[in-house]
């Protein structure tokens, strides 16, 4: 596939993913427990995926090897990052969450370099350093966040992109040849439901629709569907262009998330936030995929 088509897919997926940021902020607005939110997100995703798997006639292989693969994707790509994302989203503006999620390619590159999946290039490392500067602008200045007591939650939010970076590299190295992105997400969603629903019920954090459906619940439903669409596309893009290129979807997610948070949440980011956004965009631009990855796809 040509680089132009890959970039087009990147922009589309990034916009879809970016729209889930203000939706997530709305979903957590009533203080629902993250476990209950994740349980319903996965239930919605699984129901949606059943139709998609049937329509595409996707092959679902069930054996110990694939169950382990699905479990790792479920925990690394949904359960752990979403748990901390929901906690952070309750305390932080949507625009700040968009900046935090944008660090996925930074973490992805660091992990890829650590395990020698990617070759060291100084320009990329400058991009990593700019990412660190952007985060510093969020946590250091007095006026970067509306409430300075929430600074610690920026670091809570950073756990999500760390695990997304781990997941992207894991997918590139361990994606089974007989399991495509739809089957991957379906398998991971089922594992996630089997884990979160019992935990939510036992801890009393399960969200009962009979208690009423309002804007938060509708936002969670729409966010769950859009996450499925974005995630299937992300997994597919990893296979087409590699984890570092696919993780640059955050390059689109970030401005889309900031802009949509301004439009739908009436947020008014400080100048520090805009400065962090600009610096981060430059940094992400420097974290480019290997040209051979695009040429061979």
Structure description:
- This protein is mainly alpha-helical.
- The protein has one domain (3-295).
- 76% of the residues lie in helices and 0% in strands.
- The protein has 14 helices and no strands.
- It has helices at 3-27, 34-56, 64-91, 94-101, 104-114, 122-139, 152-157, 159-174, 181-203, 215-241, 243-247, 250-265, 271-286, 291-295.
- The protein is globular, with a radius of gyration of 18 Å.
Q: Can you tell me the number of structural domains?
A: 1
Radius of gyration: 18 Å
Alpha-beta content class: mainly alpha
| Total beta-strand segments | 0
What is the average of the pLDDT values?
87
Shape: globular
Q: Proportion of β residues?
A: under 5%
Largest sheet: none
Order of helices and strands: HHHHHHHHHHHHHH
Q: Span between N and C termini?
A: 5 Å
Kindly state the percentage of residues in helix. over 70%
**Unreliable parts:** 291-297
Number of helices: 14
Short note summarizing the structure:
The protein has 297 residues and is mostly helical.
Topology:
Elements: H1 3-27, H2 34-56, H3 64-91, H4 94-101, H5 104-114, H6 122-139, H7 152-157, H8 159-174, H9 181-203, H10 215-241, H11 243-247, H12 250-265, H13 271-286, H14 291-295
Helix pairs in contact: 1-4, 1-10, 1-12, 2-3, 2-9, 2-10, 3-8, 3-9, 4-12, 5-6, 5-8, 6-13, 9-10, 12-13
């Amino acid at each position: 596939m040509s680089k132009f088509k890959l970039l087009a897919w990147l922009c589309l997926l990034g916009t879809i993913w970016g729209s889930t940021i203000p939706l997530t902020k709305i979903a957590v607005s009533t203080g629902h427990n993250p476990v209950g939110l994740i349980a319903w997100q996965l239930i919605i995703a699984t129901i949606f995926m059943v139709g998609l798997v049937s329509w595409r006639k996707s092959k679902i292989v069930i054996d110990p090897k694939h169950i382990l693969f699905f479990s790792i994707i479920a925990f690394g790509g949904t359960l752990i990052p979403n748990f901390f994302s929901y906690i952070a989203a309750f305390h932080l503006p949507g625009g700040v969450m968009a900046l935090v999620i944008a660090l996925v390619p930074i973490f992805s590159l660091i992990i890829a370099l650590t395990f020698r999946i990617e070759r060291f290039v100084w320009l990329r490392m400058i991009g990593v350093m700019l990412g660190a500067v952007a985060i510093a602008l969020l946590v250091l200045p007095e006026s970067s966040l509306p409430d300075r007591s929430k600074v610690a939650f920026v670091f809570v939010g950073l756990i999500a992109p760390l695990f997304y970076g781990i997941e992207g590299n894991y997918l590139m190295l361990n994606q089974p040849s007989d399991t495509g992105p739809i089957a991957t997400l379906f398998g991971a969603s089922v594992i996630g439901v089997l884990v979160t629903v019992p935990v939510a019920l036992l801890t009393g954090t399960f969200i009962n629709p009979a208690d009423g459906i309002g804007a938060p619940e509708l936002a969670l439903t729409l966010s769950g569907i859009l996450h499925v669409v974005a995630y299937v596309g992300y997994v597919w893009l990893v296979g087409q262009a590699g984890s570092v290129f696919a993780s640059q979807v955050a390059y689109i997610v970030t401005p889309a998330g900031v802009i949509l948070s301004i439009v739908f949440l009436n947020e008014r980011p400080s100048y520090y936030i805009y400065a962090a956004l600009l610096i981060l965009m430059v940094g992400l631009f420097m974290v480019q995929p290997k040209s051979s990855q695009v040429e061979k796809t």
